[in-house]
Every structure is written in structure tokens, then in C-alpha cells.
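Recap slide: Glucoamylase, sequence and predicted structure.
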Amino acid sequence: MHHHLLYRSLCACIFLFSRAILGAAAAAQIPLSLAAATGSLDAWLAIETPFALNGIFENTGDGSRQDGVDEGIVIASPSKEDPDYFYTWTRDSALVFKCLVDTFIAASDDDSGDGDESVLQTRIHQYISSQAYLQTVWNPSGGWWNGAGLGEPKFQVNSTPFVGSWGRPQADGPGLRAVTMMAYARWLIANGYESTAERIVWPVIQNDLSFVAAHWNSSGFADLWEEVQGLSFFTTLVQHRALVEGRDLAVELGLECAYCESQAPQVRCLLQTYWTGSYMDSHPGSGRAGKDASTILASIYGFDPDGGCDDITFQPCSARALANHKAVTDSFRLIYPINAGLQAGKSVAIGRYAEDVYHGGHPWYLTTFAAAEQLYDAIYQWHNRGSIDISDVSLGFFKDIYSRAAVGTYAASGETFWAIVAAVREYADGYLSVAQKYTPDSGELAEQFSRQNGIPLSANNLTWSYAALLTAAARRRSIVPPSWSEWCSTDVPETCLPTFAIGSYKAASITSWPPALTSKGGSEILPPACIPTTPEPSPTTPCTTPPTSVTVTFNEIATTEWGEVIFIVGSIPQLGSWKPTDAITLSAYRYTGSNHLWYQTINLPSGASFEYKYLRKKRDGAIVWEGGPNRAYTVPKQCGLSRVMRNDDHWR
Ligand SMILES: *[C@@H]1O[C@H](CO)[C@@H](O)[C@H](O)[C@H]1NC(C)=O
Ligand SMILES: *[C@@H]1O[C@H](CO)[C@@H](O)[C@H](O)[C@H]1NC(C)=O
């Protein structure tokens, strides 16, 4: 124990000492301030987050820029040489705007009316319109009429093609962009602007989804770092989410996306093949170890706040994603001098991958933020589920930060749950503190910081760095994006097939936005119902007033013939007071050959106890009651619990 303490303070001394020398030698170029380096994380975030949002605005065309950047176009960085990032990448722009759309949705929900929302919303409209146009720009990857041009990774800031040589086409951009625009489309629908979502946004989304359905299994550049050809875990995960959400959004709009529906399970199948047994191989066949921060970025990109800790979709709290977090973060401990002495379980600076040599292969801000964000996401999910599972796969991760960790399930009613949550939160905060320590006083976030001494390096004011800070800081405050019904997509086909589907491509030409698309307030963006794989969440947030009503989804497995309908009826007025004529119809929308699911979501008073049964109405109108005794249920009346899934009913 003493030995360790001594060792650590010795390291700190050497570290401060070398910084002092360096500072004297290069004071002019190291604007690191002691205030920034030693202030509390909360104090730093309070200053840095508005700065970051402004940094994104500065790097996005809004019609006022004098340097040729079109409205809605995001520049990767203002840096014009070494490196020249004065271009717009489809990938970076989509990731940055996903952050802005989620920020907008959270702000419009809280209804403070401070006007920030309309500024954000204007930017979002400009972004979507700019992408509708960019999709149609003929470029070295091809044209838009058959979708080939959608794979072009970057354009000039004035929306003309970049014709220099480059790794192209690249496969992650369209999926990322579709998910960003779908988030906004779902907000429009939830607030009563369905026709705007359908007329203006859906056509742009549809082109990108068509590209994903056609190209998810193509060889070529799929790598978000633009370096290697072939498979990329990040890209496969992004494509999967895009197709699942595309199918659901199409249904919400009364349309269909048959190619989303047919391809999503196959992409999900491929997604499973990246697991090595202890981490996700980010780029199978690339010749690298495959421990890569892009897998952490993938996990936070697929985060569903209401999701289970599912390995299938690599949720942040899943055993595989946590084991992977350890494998990836450990791979940076020994290679960076600034991480010296920080053994497993201590927060460190994170780069892209250990073999990286690009611009010196230093740590990156955005990957260091991502290491924190995955852990905040996991904490949110554990609270939501009311328990933490530790398995053989995740034990190593937990042991590093909580030495007494053992395989088991820890409910929120016990002390262990809270001890683990506190340890994980401290660990997550530690990653943000590392980035804080190496952020200059000005607040500017570059792409990288030196592995030797933490000086900012490579492109300055990297837009993606700012977005990565904002999303990590939001998750730290439990501000999360809407659910994408992750738990509906956890069945995996037995055999993975190399397939594709042909969608359709049309120039999305309607880009004039109606005025006053204001929030209706309190209109929650609900995911479509489906059979859940998660147990009912048990609430843990302390509060004094539990909700007065709870949205309960009843899922009933009942094999029916064509023309038959299943109803639910029960002893309370909301369920028809046992009168078959007032029974509630269940939906067969998700009924398939292998899953005979009928479901309905009903708003019920908290705490209500009742009995109920299912009814079958035959094609000729005859009513058949299910057998057995009445079923009984008590709606939970608990703080923080507003939605419940019941998934254990079978027709009898
Ligand atoms: C295509 O899909 C098959 C089946 O999942 C898989 O084995 C193969 O690696 C995939 N190739 C690419 C380039 O996605
Ligand atoms: C970075 O952004 C800040 C704030 O907008 C600005 O003052 C600074 O000049 C920018 N740096 C570069 C290299 O563009």
C-alpha cells in the first residue's frame, strides 16, 4: 500500500518537474493554465461546454461566413495546412449534427422557452437542406441516380466535389447521416409535423438507407479512420442501427422500407462476427490487433437509454462492451509517456489504436471523451434496469475499479450496486479530467495532444472534438437521446448471408421549411412497441411524487388464423370493466411466422390492481375467452418509472 502511494507521488513529481522544464522552454506555445489543469471537473465543464457549442457554430456555415462555406455545411476544422481539414466530411458532419439534434430535442423537452432551440433548429434545417443538395452532386465516386455518389467521403466547403485522390467510396457516411436526420424526423412526428417529416426529411433519409441496404456487404473502405479496406465494426454497427430505425420510421410515416426490413437481420448477423472472446476486432483482416477506440465510439453510437445490456447490439452496459472498454483502454497505458504509472483501472489518455502513426499517433480528445461517455451510458442503463450484472466476460473490467467484484447480479436495493456505480462514475470522470488537463486555457480542442507532454497537436478547433465533449458532458448529467427500440433487434439469424437489396434514389428537391415548427411540449418520442428482452426496470431515482399514470405495454403470444383478432379486457374501466364490447384491440403489426406477437400500449393509473384476460374474436364475430384463472397485475407506483413492458403472457 505505502509502496504504491510512494510510487505514485514520485511519478507525479517527475511529471510536474518535466512540465516545468518544458513550460520554460516553450511557454509561448503551451497555453496550459494551472486553473484549467487543477480546477474541478464541474467548473471546467461549465465553461467548456458553451465554448464547444460555439466552436461547432463557428465551424458551420449559416449564411454569414465570408470564407465560402455554404449554409449548413460543417467544416472538419479551420486548419488549412498540416493538416488541411478545410473540407466537409459526410461522417464528421453527421456525428456533429447528431449531437445538435439531440441537444435540440432535450432543450425542446425542458420547455424553458429561452430561445436556444430556435437557433439550433435553424441550423438543423440548414444542415438537412445542404445534405439534400450534396447527395445530388456528381463526384469521383459516381452520381446519385444509382446511389454510387453517396459513398463520396468529403466535399469542398462550397458544396462542389473534391476531385483529388482519396480513399473512396466510404461506407459509413450515409448510415450516420440517416440516423441523424431520423432523430429529427421523429421529433417532428412527435410534435405533430408528420407531413414535414415525410415531404422534406424522409426523401433525403431514403436515399441514404438505400445506399446502406445495397452496400453494407460490399468490399471497399468502411473504416472511419479512412485507412484500411475491408470490414469495420464501427461501420457495421452504424449500418445496422440505420436500417432498424429506417424500418420503424417508415412505418410511423405510413410508408415502408422493405429493403431495411430484409437487410437489418443480416447486418446484425455480421455484427456478431467481430467478437474475439475478449474484445471487438475493429478491422478483421487488417493485420492489426484490432483493439481500437472506434469500437468504443460504436458502442456509444448504438446506445439506447431504454435498451438492455445486450451483447447483440453491443450496448454500453453489455458484458462485451465493458470487456472491450478494458482491452482498448489498457492498450494505451504503456505506449504513451503521459500515461506512465497509471495501471489498469486508472483513467488515461486514449488514442485511436496502439499501432497508429498518423501525425505522430498521439492521443485524441474525442476518443478520450468517448471512453468516459460509454461508462456514463452504462450507469444510466444500470439505473434504468435497477441492477448490474457481472459475468465472466465483464469481471476483469469490474475488478480493475472495484477489487471485490464477483460474478453475480447486484440489485439497486443493495450496497454493492451503489459502490460499483460510484467507482465507475469516478473512473469515467477521470477520463474527462485527463482531457481537461491537456486542454489549453483558451478552451480550444484540437484533434490530438502529445503523448510526451500533452501539448495540443494536429488540426485545431476540430469540430468533432467539440461534439464529443458535448455528448460526454450530457450523458454525465443523465441527458440521453430518445430510445431506438434496441431490444426489438436482438434476434440473430442462424446463418449469416452475404446479401444486398436495391432501394430507390430520388433527388430530394423540397427544401423550404415551414415556419414555426415549435415544440408542443411533453410529446415524448416513444419507440415502437415490440417484444422486449429486458426485465421490467425497477426505479432507483429518489423523488417524492411518483407519476400518476404508467404506460404499460402488454405483449401476448397467441397463434391466430387470418381474420382473427386478439383483445384484452379487465376489471378496471381502462380495460373495459370486463365488457367484451369495450375490450381493447391488440396490434398484430409485429406478428411474424416465428413470433406470434399481439401487443398494445395502454395508459393505466399508477398503483392500480386489477384482473384481466385475453379474448379472441373469430372471423365470424364469435368471441372466445382464453382458459384458466384470471390474470392479475398491479401497476407499479414508483418514482422515475413511467413505462413498463409485460412480456410473459401466452394464450391459454
Ligand atoms: C459479407 O457478409 C458475409 C456474411 O455475413 C461475411 O462473411 C462477409 O465478411 C461480408 N463481407 C463484407 C465485405 O461485408
Ligand atoms: C479556434 O477557435 C477560436 C475560437 O473561435 C479562435 O479564436 C481561434 O482563432 C481558432 N483557431 C484556429 C487555428 O482557427
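Residues 58, 78, 444, 460-461 surround 2-acetamido-2-deoxy-beta-D-glucopyranose (ligand 2) (CB under 6 Å).
Residues 284-487 form a domain with the Glycosyltransferase fold (CATH 1.50.10.10).
(End of recap.)
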